[in-house]
Design brief:
The protein has 302 residues and is α/β, with parallel strands linked by helices. The chain has two domains: 144 residues, Rossmann fold (3-Layer(aba) Sandwich); 143 residues, Rossmann fold (3-Layer(aba) Sandwich), CATH 3.40.50.620. 42% of the residues lie in helices and 21% in strands. The protein has a ten-stranded mixed β-sheet, with helices on both faces. β6, α6 and β7 form a beta-alpha-beta unit.
Amino acid sequence: MISIKKILVAVDFSEPSKKAVTYGLTLATQFNARLILAHIVPASSALPYAFPLETFEIERNQEQKAKREIEQLVPAEYKKECEIRTIVKTGSIDSELLGIVRTEAVDLVIMGTHGRRRFSHWFIGSVTERLLRKVPVPLLTVSHVDPEKHTVGLVTLKRILYATDRFESSSAGLVYAIDLARRAGAHLTVMHAVYYADQALWAPAGIPDFDNERLRLSREIRKKIDDVFTQEHVQELPIHIVVDEGKPFEKILQIAKEIDVDIIVLNLQSKGTLERALLGATAERVVRLAPIPVLSIPSTAQ
């Protein structure tokens, strides 16, 4: 089983970050973990040289305002669900958040992201993308939130989708998906998409003899699942295996919609550090486009 003792939620007071607090409360309750809510006031880069006193006063006022607002994010009736701590700092957003992860020994980071629909410090391609590349612990991103449907509280996790790449690093994500499903009492779907970039040139009708390939891959994935069950000593869970043909990010989003999942779990790294530095088309697209939270697992989480 995985151990999550401290959960960090990065807050910018947007609707997605408020939804991130909801997921933080839910997971902190399930794992009996401490919840840390953190807001970083962006440091001014040029003003301190010309107007040092004014800049200090502005940043201090922003910190004080943030300290008042962050205390109000969790309603009183939910504060007893878990131990909650708040942190407000001024500085570089991603550097300060990474610093908190290290100094507080955080096991999971949760943050809201706006996708590319609007400009913000927190959209994928900025702070979120840099954290996805650097954070040594799993990162749960929450985006595309409908403010009218959002209420602070605990969310129900009924269906979890884990997308496997079948490489060695995939076991870390599988362990997280299994334990999350076990604790939430959720149904777990494990999927793999078979795709060759040049298949349209040599197989317009699709991958030859794909039915047999699908069967072989399903058996391979089932064996890996059984191995994890043996190693982790977890109870049997309802698990469905899906092997399909197509671009991975498209298939992940398609299946997530078809079975109405609550969280997608995927691995950030498959082959090496270079791929992690480049992040990869599948992870970035899923995080940016998924209408549901995505839990990204780095290989360092193993």
